[in-house]
Every structure is written in C-alpha cells, then in structure tokens.
Design brief:
Layout lengths: L5 E6 L5 H10 L3 E7 L3 H11 L2 E3 L2 H7 L2 E4 L6 H10 L3 E5 L6 H14 L3 E4 L6 H9 L5 E7 L11 H17 L3 E9 L8 E8 L4 E7 L6 E7 L3 E6 L4 E8 L2 E7 L6 H15 L7 H20 L2
Helix pairs in contact: 1-2, 1-8, 4-5, 5-9, 7-9
Length: about 300
C-alpha cells in the first residue's frame, strides 16, 4: 500500500523559504499545501509558482499542514515554531534554531512534550561531502574551515557568526564529539553594526583544535574544510562537492581524489525531514544539536563584542 504524502508548508518565503517551497513541490513524498508570509502578495507569488494555498494567518496555515519549514527571521523562530508545534505540526526551523538559549530550550521542550519532530536546518550535514568525510574520519587533531561570501543583503538581524559560522560550528561539534574547553575569537563590523568577518579558535577537551573563519564581505564564495588526523589529511569543498585525501606513502605524500556523487543538499535535507515526519524517526540534526551549535555561537559573539 502506497504511503500517503505528508502535507507540507513553508512559513516565510523570502530568499531561503522560496527554495523550500520549490523542493516540497518536487518531492514525491510531500504535498505542498500551504504558504505563509506576513506579505500576502509574496505568499501568492510563491503559491502561483509552486502550489499551496497562500495565507497571511499562521493559525490557518498550521491547520493545513502536517510538517512545515520555518524560514522566517531568527527572532521569530520561537514564536512561530511554538504555534506550529502546539498545532501538532512537525517543524524544521532554519538555522540558527533561535537567537537565545532560552528560546532554543523552549522549542526543544515543547517538541518533546508534543512528541513532534524538531529539525534544525544545518544544511551542510546533508551535503554529499559530509558522508565522505565521516567515512574517512578517525580522530581529528586539527580542523580548519573557511566560509566566505559576498554581502548577502539578508539575515542582517544577526552577525556573521550566527549567519554563516554556525554551519561549521555544528559540523565540527559533530565530528569532534568532545566538550569545548576554550574559545578565542575576534571579529569586526564592516557594513553592519554586527560582526561581518570573524575568526574563532576552539580547543576541545580531547585535544583537537579547530580554527574557523567566516566572512560575509568577501568578493568570492568559499565553503571549505580541512581535517588533519594522524594517518591522513582531508581537504573538502562543500560548494564544489569535491575534494582530496592525502596519505603518507613511505617518504612521499600520496594524493587521492575523493569521489562524491553530487546532489542538492537542501533537497536531501527536506526529503529526510519529510521521511522523519512520516515515520516518527529522529532527524539527523535535532533541536539539541542546533542548540549546542547556538550555545557556542553565542559565546563567540559575546567574546567578539566584548573586544570592541
């Protein structure tokens, strides 16, 4: 017997949310039934492109869907996520999960109370590069990541740490699987009142060190990670979905290309969310994972702002 499609919707259809709508409309396991935005004309525009009923009422939206993406400004995540969870909807909230530890905890507690999926949109965990990295990872000793982009003209309610660096923080916490022992950070505002370029150095209790750079004022895009361990060095490119592994071969260093089957990370992320909603499975990036990354990001932000 064919499984019924999950009734899906998107709350907030700006630059990110419109892509959620596009993918839900393409997934065989989902039925895009509703679009919510405070700008009803924008909701209608996206609805005409991808389907679903446009609505300016969050309560009406919640009554139509079984599972929903929340792609609204970070400061609204707790309010909107809570309304949807209270209405018995499964929720995928874009990163960061919230803009405070209290709001993140409130969402996690409510999802647990309502027995609903709460997934956080850390998209790089669904990048095909990640599975190759995880398969080759033994015990990382040093990690270096760079995430650079031109000025986005969006997410200006938060700094670059919560906007971009948090992707790499969540990945690194996942890969290292150890408590953070020390954080050093520096950052400066350039085009906004918040930090637009930042660097953080994390030292973990197991001895691993991670050096993380994020910028939203760079002329070119870059999303790369390098992982050093005792027997190998991996250099992977999230953007190009490719990379290399370097190993010691006698007194030489042998280089081998990492074969990666390319795919769209957002499609994989949303397909996984819909499957979790349909089967009651725990998502790859839970609310607790998102909250752990947020906790480190907020501490980095605090250290940066204290230095100004």
């Amino acid at each position: 017997m064919e499984q019924a499609k999950v009734k899906a919707g998107v709350a907030g259809v700006g630059a990110i949310g419109q892509n959620h709508a596009r993918i839900y409309s393409e997934l065989e396991s989902a039925d895009l039934v509703a679009i919510y935005d405070t700008d009803i004309e924008r909701a209608k525009e996206i609805s005409e492109k991808f389907g679903g009923t446009p609505t300016q009422s969050l309560e009406d939206f919640a009554s139509m869907v079984d599972a929903a993406s929340v792609a609204t400004p970070t400061v609204t995540h707790r309010e909107i996520g809570s309304i949807l969870l209270e209405a018995d909807c499964h929720v995928l909230v874009e990163k960061p999960i919230a803009d405070s530890r209290d709001d993140a905890k409130a969402l996690i507690d409510l999802a647990q109370q309502k027995n609903k999926i709460l997934q956080v949109g850390h998209i790089e965990r669904f990048n095909p590069v990640m599975s190759q990295l995880e398969a080759r990872l033994d015990s990382p000793k040093f990690i270096e990541s760079h995430r650079l982009s031109p000025f986005p003209q969006r997410s200006l309610d938060i700094g670059v740490v919560l906007d971009l660096m948090i992707h790499d923080l969540e990945i690194i916490l996942h890969l290292v699987n150890s408590e953070v022992a020390q954080i050093d950070a520096v950052g400066i505002p350039v085009l906004t009142k918040r930090e637009d370029i930042a660097n953080a150095r994390l030292r973990f209790e197991n001895g691993c060190v991670a050096n993380i750079t994020a910028s939203r004022i760079s002329p070119e895009k870059m999303r790369k990670i390098r992982v050093f361990q005792s027997e190998a060095y991996l250099s992977l490119d999230y953007q190009e979905q490719g990379g290399w592994i370097y190993r010691k071969d006698g007194m030489q260093i042998a280089r081998e290309e990492v074969e990666i089957e390319k795919d769209e990370p957002l499609k994989l992320e949303l397909a996984s969310f819909i499957e979790c909603a349909a089967k009651g499975q725990s998502p790859k990036v839970t609310g607790k994972h998102g909250a752990a990354a947020l906790d480190i990001a907020l501490e980095i932000t605090r250290l940066i702002e204290e230095s100004w």
